[in-house]
Amino acid sequence: MAVTVSSFAESRWSCCVSFGVFGGGGSHGSSVTNNLVFGGFGFGCSLSFGSRNQQPTNKFLKTRRNRPSRNKEENIDLISCPVQHGLSDFETLKFTSLNPAPRKDCECLDLYKELIPYGKAWSWQKILVNEKKAMIKRNEDCPDTLIVLQHDPVYTMGTGSSDKFLNFDLNDAPYEVYRTERGGEVTYHGPGQLIMYPIVNLRNHKMDLHWYLRALEEVVIRVLAKTFSIKASRLEGLTGVWVGNQKLAAIGIRVTQWITYHGLALNVTTDLTPFDWIVPCGIRNRQVGSVKGLLKGFQSSSDCGEANGDHPNDRQLIDMAHKSLLKEFSEIFQLKIHHKTISDLEVKKENL
User: Where's the BPL/LPL catalytic domain (predicted)?
Assistant: First the structure.
């Protein structure tokens, strides 16, 4: 039986296309050609050139300081993309038929049971992106990589984020605050939220940013349907995965030389209270939801210990969601998952 919810508030990562620049959104109906996104998809986009440096506003705020390249072919930043779908049925896009067998390899750094500081995971992503750029430059095969983890409590902001959507003083923030190069406004990450950071070479899939965003959404939609019998969907003009008006999964990415990083966050057993300290993605009329919150019959509490009967506890819900996320990701992107370790990542860092 599908679970549906009728009301609620959004933690939104959204995206728009720019070249080597930090920018904002635009109006519906715009289109980007230039072999990036094909017309007719209704992207709201802002195109601009050059760069501007973001400066930290307090000791908590971490800022990307390197100036992006001015070369159009160097960086494609997804910053804010309202999308008019017109295709709620994922099958019409035929994602799973793009890459015939045999499947390409995907290295997976799977730390889903661990709480990883945001700064460390961000550093890992940039190491992997730089490695893949170097491999492409040397005309070597460039396999995809997937990082799966949970974060310590943290707020992250996109390149165009405004402080007015913070319900606290940055000098007295409840948690660390990072300003990153991903798109969108402020959001929260914390325990009980499964994070997937695909560092994917879109040359191996489809060089279409609209396709990539819809593919990430479809991963979560299938996980919720197949594993938890929750009927989720897309909402017109909004990026992410929704049940009614509740947002269960946020998506925010950056793409450079067709290599993706940042990714998606699925609220499984997340304590949603920290979202009260922000206006998620600057939208006040929507709520944030979680798998646990929707599965009222599956809810567990800290004093219940192991699950009773058919009602999974928090740990089991995380395990179920994790297993399903890996399965659906590998199916949609037609990849063969190979698990790697932190030591493998350190070797990559030394070789760069």
Answer: 140-337
In sequence order, the 6+-apart residues with CB closer than 8 A to the CB of 34 are 72
* Spatial contact of 72 and 19, defined as CB atoms under 8 Å apart: yes
Domains in the chain: how many in total? Answer: 1
Q: Where residue 332 sits, what CATH number does that domain have?
A: 3.30.930.10
- The count of other CB atoms within 10 Å of the CB of residue 62 is 19
* pLDDT band, very low/low/confident/very high, at 341 (cuts 50, 70, 90): confident
Task: Tell me which residues are annotated as active site.
Answer: 281
CA atoms in the 13 A half-sphere facing the CB of 33: 1
In terms of phi and psi (left: phi > 0; alpha: psi -120 to 50; beta: otherwise), the region of 197 is beta
C-alpha distances out from residue 58 to 55, 186, 196, 340, 350, Å = 9, 16, 28, 36, 32
Pairwise CA distance, residues 266 & 287, whole Å: 14
DSSP symbol at 240: E
For β-strands 77-78 and 17-18, DSSP reports them as: antiparallel
pTM (2 d.p.): 0.73
Predicted confidence (pLDDT) at residue 205 exceeds the cutoff of 70: yes
- Has residue 4 been placed in a domain? no
Write out the residue range of the structural domain in which residue 53 sits.
17-85+98-351
